[in-house]
Amino acid sequence: MGDLKNIKNFEYGLEKIFPEAEDFLPINGTDYVEIYVGNAKQAAHFYKTALGFQSLAYAGLETGLKDKTSYVVVQDKIRIVLTSSMNPDSDINHHLVQHGDGVKVIALWVDDATKAFEETTKRGAKPYMEPTREEDEHGFVVKSGIHTYGDTVHIFVERNHYAGVFLPGFEKWESHYNPAPVGLRYIDHMVGNVGWNEMNTWAEFYKNVMGFANLITFDDKDISTKYTALMSKVMTNGNGRIKFPINEPAEGIKKSQIEEYIDFYKGAGCQHIAVATNDIIHTVREMTNRGVEFLYVPGTYYDTVGDRVGEIEEDMKKLKELGIMVDRDDEGYLLQIFTKPIEDRPTLFFEIIQRKGAQSFGKGNFQALFESIEAEQARRGTL
Question: What is the 3-state secondary structure (H, E, C) of 277-342?
């Protein structure tokens, strides 16, 4: 397991090397996340209005595509591609029928997409996309891809020789409607939910196929309430820029959030995207004013949190007002909050996180968080 004291996030200009990671697959960061949605145009409007993203790029009928439409939105280092199908009998629509709106592609920025494909497939990864060169007047990119849990895939993107707005085939998306950003900066981590007894299988996949290291392990003693439990392993690449917690259900009296997710998503998939901010109070207040719904944290949580985390810079009254939780580790503290699911199925949601030195994942908040999630499950009749 990785040593938390050695972790330094690259976004703060600090180096971190995980010696446990083989790092035969150097990854520069998250390139983009592609979400298959029922209506990309309307989804893009939501991401701009509610979450503060900006228009970046577009591909569709006007750019020569006949089978799908994609809108790309951006906020600082975060790029999200929202894709819909124009063909009822397409892989995209089959994905939507099965899963509803959900993450299809977690794209990783690499220097050599061909080498990334070769290194992972020879170690057992199932190929999704052979190395393919795409070019236009702005240069070229090379993309390749492999399958991972459920129907989720990783696309390796090599873009050192490309100067276009996003990727070949996309044009700049100009819009007169540009709500202000809410302060989201980069993807901190992305969480995958897998089925019973599959956590170790996929942790080994990231270790053996992609050279990741196991940073932290949480068992059902760490993540449990009176009713439900789960287990999780956090996998990280060699430079710490990519972190993938992998969750599986654990035995409990009632149905856990992981089981609920798998029931409604119809299989394994990306549960949530954690996005970082430098001012969580501003970000959450803005998102709340724009209609984003967050999980409710019982007010009693704040009766003891100060004793547990010690002195912090933020006003605890403001944190309580917004429902922002706090946790501390040996390196500092963090603040975090979770949205309710952003679509009709209780599946994909976002975490907003601000790290004030801490590089852990809010273990001290698990009890309050999971009780809040269970309250939502009870309202939905799925607990």
Answer: ECCHHHHHHHHHHCCCCECCCCCCHHHHHHHHHCCCCCCHHHHHHHCCEEEEECCEEEEEEEECCC
